[in-house]
Write a structure and sequence with these properties.
- The protein is globular, with a radius of gyration of 18 Å.
- The protein is of the alpha/beta class.
- β1, α1 and β2 form a beta-alpha-beta unit.
- 43% of the residues lie in helices and 14% in strands.
- The two termini are 28 Å apart.
Length: 274
């Protein structure tokens, strides 16, 4: 069965500039499904690229836009700080002015690992604030702004918002207080918005990835991740970013038209039932 409900639709994917990332794969998957796609990023300069990206001649969100256009879909790149309210409002105006509508929003942007992965007694306030600013405040601002635009549409077409959370928001592991709290907050936000926006035909869901093969894994040796996976994941392998993207596409499709307010784990079986 082919997923439907994408032709003529416009999607926005935040945090889509990294070469090995859930954001990039989600933007491409939505384009393959039939969407025009606007991608956002922080405007990384080449000195912030990974060695792999520099070797490939990567150009952040501009490279993703080029890939989408090669698929025959319309695409644009917008540098946007999603935690800055005026910047988010400007993003909404640009998308609605240039494309005339927005149907799907994927809140993928997240704070990079920095000084937050420490015991909570040693967690600097500024690190806590930096993580919550992007992961929770940013997701809230983008969701609220685009939901307002969806509600205001005269055709009452509704829409779909998919938030990229994490199983960390359910596990609440040691040394991840800020990250886990931010992702648990995204799940709570997802639930509340789904209940409020359902009457307007807007579905809100979250995807909670586990250990996924993106550049975010590069901060630990491969052997450390291998040991963790063998000890915790029944499927005994790291996930592919495309597998997360495919789940997002399903949640945005007509076939998921009766699914809202959910936080689905895509994690190789690390969490069950929860």
């Amino acid at each position: 069965m082919q997923l439907t409900g994408f032709e003529g639709k416009v999607a926005v994917v935040t945090g889509a500039g990294r070469m090995r990332s859930i954001g990039r794969e989600t933007a491409l998957a939505l384009a393959r499904a039939g969407c025009d796609v606007v991608v956002t990023g922080t405007g990384r300069t080449p000195d912030r690229y990974t060695g792999e990206e520099r070797a490939a001649g990567w150009r952040d969100i501009d490279s993703v836009v080029a890939e989408i256009r090669e698929l025959g879909r319309r695409a644009d790149a917008v540098v946007c700080d999603i935690a800055d309210e005026p910047a988010v409002d400007a993003l909404v105006r640009k998308v609605t002015d240039d494309y005339g509508r927005v149907d799907i929003v994927v809140n993928n942007a997240a704070a990079a690992r920095a000084g937050d992965r420490v015991p909570v007694l040693e967690l600097p306030t500024e690190s806590w604030d930096a993580v919550l600013r992007v992961n929770l405040r940013g997701t809230f601002l983008v969701s609220r702004a685009f939901a307002r635009a969806m509600v205001a549409r005269a055709d009452g077409a509704g829409g779909s918002i998919v938030n990229i959370s994490s199983i960390a928001g359910k596990l609440g592991g040691a040394n991840t207080a800020a990250y886990a709290a931010s992702k648990a907050g995204v799940q709570a936000l997802t639930s509340s918005m789904a209940k409020e926006l359902g009457p307007a035909g807007i579905r809100v869901n979250a995807v909670c990835p586990g250990v996924t093969g993106t550049s975010r894994l590069d901060d630990l040796p491969a052997e450390a991740w291998r040991s963790y996976v063998e000890a915790n994941l029944p499927l005994q392998r790291v996930g592919d970013a495309r597998e997360v993207a495919w789940t997002v596409v399903f949640l945005a499709s007509e076939q998921a038209g009766w699914v809202t307010g959910q936080s689905w784990n895509v994690d190789g079986g690390q969490l069950t039932v929860r």
